[in-house]
Fold Univin-like.
Amino acid sequence: MMRVLVFVTVVTTVCTGVSGAADVDPRIARLESAMLRALGMTHRPRPKRGATVPRHMLELYGRQEKLRAQTAGEQSGCQFPDVTVPGNIVRNFKGKYHDAVDPSPTACSSQGVTYSVSAVAAEEFVRSAELRVPIPDDPRVWSVAKAYTVSVYRVLQPGKAASADSLELLQSHVITPFDRDDVKTFNIVSAVQHWQRRAEDNHGLLVSVEAVKAEDGTRLDSCPQFSITDAELFVISTDMQQCRSRDKRSARTVDSSNGP
């Protein structure tokens, strides 16, 4: 594998030159194209400079690398539900936030958010979809309530004014001071799978926050400091065709330690 990577680097250097200008030599272009196809790629990666990698993506990469080292030499297929299987596709989506009317009279804060999952192809199998909500560490949040209940709903009908009939509860969590400055995950895989099949039904999510009653029995009517505008959608899917192509390539792996 190392030999293949070095060869691709050489081809790229010859093709682009020192200045990065494209070389028009068709032989080099065909050679590069063949090497990329052998690696299961259709074009050269062009990462954006200065892009910020989400923390949980780095954590997933670290776990993958650790497990890959532990299972070196073992045959690995594309099986469910192991998140380290070859062929997995991991995506991180940023949401578009908008005001939403929460029908619950006990909610102290609510936020509408929409995630476009059009990048998930129809042939992919969505195995995991987590809404990751960072829990604030603001002392003002915890000085007024001992706990909060955060609920995530799928909006079934378009419109700013939601009603109980137009919402589907996906998951709720009770948030305590022990969760402060952490991330709480909500399982919304059923919603993402539905949006993948029917994009026209994607009317977004409603994230509702309710303050648990204090010792004296009072309930907060407002909790603006409990911000939920930094939530991110983390989706893991698998393209079975990609799994088969990777298995096929692994069967032709050459041991570089034995020489050319």
Summary: The first strand starts at residue 88 and ends at 94. The beta strands are 88-94, 96-98, 109-114, 124-134, 148-155, 167-175, 183-187, 205-211, 232-239. The radius of gyration is 24 Å.
